[in-house]
Known about the structure:
By secondary structure, the protein is mainly alpha-helical. It has helices at 6-29, 37-41, 61-68, 102-115, 136-150, 159-170, 173-194, and strands at residues 43-49, 52-58, 70-71, 151-152. The protein is built from 7 helices and 4 strands. Strand 1 and strand 2 (52-58) form a beta hairpin. Helix 1 runs antiparallel to helix 6 (159-170) and helix 4 (102-115) packs across helix 5 (136-150).
Amino acid sequence: MAYNLINTQKTLERFRDYVIQQSRTNLTKGGKNVTSNLYNQLKGEVKAMPNSIGVYFEMPQYGLFQDKGVRGIGGTKKNGDAYEQRGGNSPFRFGSGKSKGGSMYASILKWVQARRFQFTTKNQKNKKDNGKLMSYKTTAAIITKSLWHTGIRPSLFFTKPFEAGYKKYITEDLIKGFALDVEDLMKTSLKDNKK
């Protein structure tokens, strides 16, 4: 027998809407909404099945990298200094797959072009070349190399709203909503038994 969990579903829908709205706000405030691709593809769904109900969130895979961060491969610079590690305790790490940063380079090239971001040259031998803009490709290559070694800091753009929404909606409101659904079920069952 399928039960009508309308109050539970409404609570889960409020939770879903809160998490998505706050996550999108975090993307915008954090400067991670250049193309709006991740912003627009961040979705959630409340699915009611015959005997269960659940909340499902969806985003492109790189959204997980933005949220949880990515550990770099480390190494040392030409001057002998170690690369700073920014990925924290992320479950993701560059260099764990077959890629050597090729797909990351393409994404970063799009990013620098969209922002019209270019490094300037600094030439100790020929000072007249100082201050000239590097090409987008060279700028993207420098950023890719740096990220490959140092990693990406976690932004927690999704994790923080999820945890806050969980505390706000799931702990108390869900219990109240489920209690109302059980009460409605009991009333319906009692009416059916009187017939």
